[in-house]
Design brief:
Number of strands: 7
Helix content: under 10%
CATH class: Mainly Beta
Strand order of the largest sheet: 4-6-5
Order of helices and strands: EEEEEEE
Number of helices: 0
């Protein structure tokens, strides 16, 4: 008899019991000039796909779907060596330079936030800790 795998519900890795009371008041990241990370911008492979991060800061525009890493990775080191804060205004992207800053917009409700990209994410979706 085949055993089925149950996927965790979408709430299994949700914000948890210690969600900040003022989560909507978490400030956007404030862009500032920073040197590019020495190691996080090297080419890498994930699931058989190769990625080559950009090594210069220039205008970038894309449309896609964002995702959230959640509790599973909270407190773990990102590719930049900084701990992931699931409530912080940070993000991951497969090829943007580490660090860089981006405005993430939700066209459905017109809201947007500024986040600091500090993690490479060689996945189909871009991850981040931005609120919806």
């Amino acid at each position: 008899m085949a055993r089925s795998r149950r996927r965790p519900s979408s709430t299994a890795d949700g914000p948890g019991d210690r969600q900040p009371e003022d989560i909507d008041a978490i400030p956007d990241a404030v862009p500032r000039v920073e040197p590019l990370h020495r190691f996080a911008n090297n080419p890498y492979s994930v699931l058989g796909k190769d990625y080559v991060p950009l090594r210069d800061l220039k205008p970038y525009k894309a449309r896609g779907i964002g995702s959230w890493y959640g509790r599973k990775f909270h407190g773990q080191k990102t590719s930049s060596g900084e701990p992931y804060d699931m409530y912080g205004m940070t993000a991951a992207h497969p090829t943007l330079p580490i660090p860089s800053y981006v405005r993430v917009s939700n066209p459905a409700n017109g809201k947007s936030v500024v986040v600091r990209v500090r993690q490479q994410s060689g996945q189909r979706q871009v991850g981040g800790g931005a609120r919806q």
